[in-house]
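Justification of resources, computational component.

The compute hours requested in this renewal are based largely on the per-chain cost of generating structure records like the one below. Each record pairs the submitted sequence with a full structure-token output. That output is archived, and it is also reused by downstream analysis tasks.
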Amino acid sequence: MLSKNALTVLARRYLKKDVEGNPVEGPEDMFRRVALAVAEGDRLFDPGADVEASAERFYDMMIGLRFMPNSPTLMNAGRELGQLSACFVLPIADSMEDIFDAVKNAALIHKSGGGTGFAFSRLRPAGSTVNSTGGVASGPVSFMKVFNSATEAVKQGGTRRGANMGILRVDHPDILDFIECKKDLSEITNFNISVGVTERFMQAVEGDRNYPLIDPHTGEEIRELRARDVFDKIVAMAWQNGEPGIVFLDRINKDNPVPALGEVESTNPCGEQPLLPFESCNLGSVNLSAFVRRGREGSYFDWEEYGRVIREAVHFLDNVISVNHYPLPQIKEMTLKTRKIGLGVMGFSDMLYMLGIPYNSPAAVELAEKLMRFLQTEAREKSAELAETRGTFPAWEESVLASERLRQRNATVTTIAPTGTISIICGTSSGIEPVFALSYIRNVMDNDELVEGHPYFEQVLRERGLYSPELMKRLAQEGSVQNMPELPADIRRVFVTAHDISPEDHVRMQAAFQKYTDNAVSKTVNFSHEATKKDVRTVYELAYRLGLKGVTIYRDGSRDSQVLNIGKVNSSEPQPEESKGIVARERPEVTQGITQKVKIGCGNLYITVNYDDRGICEVFTNLGRAGGCPSQSEATSRLISQALRSGMDVNELVEQLRGIRCHSTLRKGGDVKVLSCPDAIGRVLQAVARMRGEQVAPLMQDELKSPGLPTTCPECGEVLEYEGGCNICKACGYSKCG
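The structure output for this chain reads:
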């Protein structure tokens, strides 16, 4: 049964619409449309095939929420566009013509609903001489900005901005500039970036040696860098804002099934699908939580049904390759040569809840390996079965698989994708990620607060007589059942969430799935805001040792605020005399702080909160050109600043400001839902105080982003979760990568 969120996402993103934007099909119609269009692929290999029977099986898998293909297939199958692939990798050669051909090709792909990956490693470094003109090369980072601008101008299929992956080899001369190219988060906003790390580099890091930088244009070694210095810079930037990630290029190419066709240089935007130049990926995911059954002796996993769906899903995905309308002839040619598919899983965390297994336990890691080994085995056997009637992929004879016992229809069969919106449709947890929160607070139109909880968690509480609205609201505020000793120990043990799990356990789980995955695994390793750079370094090194093909981390709060002024205040400032009563200290000459934009009924309200080493010391507000009451906001800000510098507790100020209402400020959507300008100021104060580690009341999860909490959706105002380099809204399906 489709949830309310699923219906919202389908209506906004997937269902066919008329010219006025109104849906003209329901979810069942959409699944039927997709099933029939994909089943037509059978007829290409057998004119007498029972297409209707295949369509019925495909429809049953999707309507039963046991399997879901990638988003472009749901959106475009059976429609005029007909572009069904999610992700592509485009080559960029070292000439102006090739660079701008790639820009054009990327725009066509984004228009059709796909995302693109690029390796900028072939471009000569900045400052190099361009022989044809006598000019100077601008370098990879400069051209990334060109691609970024083009992406910004093209809206994917009318629903979202395009997404890109940018990769640069660690031995490229511009690697230091690349590592820091997203230091300013207002630039290159449509890219996730990863450093293409080599075995030679990692060995140099371990041995504390220098390694060479190679000019890709000449192949000459131009200078050396100390490997540990470069690795530390990667770690520092990832700690600061979550990027760059790391892609282990040599490890990926070791598993390249057809090296004769080229070297893998890049991946899709979320990193789980390494691809050859001009290849596209065709993904789908099986919903693990749909196979948990209840028996007399408790819950169990239905392996037989799991195997049946895996085999049918491989049939489905192979058909997608055949019926797909490719955006470029080169992409069609390369994709048909290898016929790669990427079948993965979602709902892993929900499945663990249902089976009573903690995510951060050896039992969960063992089950992950078993599930993925089973999926890979079943998928390969089905691919072999298809090869008997349809033939192997055309590049079979020149592949490394040609010596294997089973001839394969598909060069790869398994991938673990982040599953963003398709997991919302299935009403389950994303990919192999742990659940982000068990309870959160949603604002509704009349300003009441509606507590929403994880369905299975609520079910368990009700069955055991433990449920209460008060408990769920408290959980939404505190964020974890680990802080609720009144709940039974087994509930606290099983119902762990993303931030209850150590970064090392995140990596070990990713490694368990990678062991039996042909391609790669999309997984975010979560860190608390308090994590150190050493913690990040430890995880990157562990990922290398455990055989991962890539790793992405995110430290809570690392993308939340933009520093305006950084410096140290003069600590010799004289203190006010007590005999004169409460006197505000002088404003510091140098402060640091953040500015938060809040959308209100009157326009955009910009709230700046500054602090020094003695605490938060001032607030400024600036209202956009739409009007409102700027004088009142300024007066409020001045009084707050005086109160702060007079030593008034931030909690007291927040308590007085929060909850003040203004009829013109109430919003149904936007970055954050606020009741008034004072209410917005109170929320920002609360967020900044919490960021600085001061003892303040916890924020609600639908409020302003602060360390430890997600940002809010710009379309519906609900919580965004960070997964695989993308922010995902589980309420409306909005996503933004980069």
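The chain has a mean pLDDT of 88. The radius of gyration is 27 Å.
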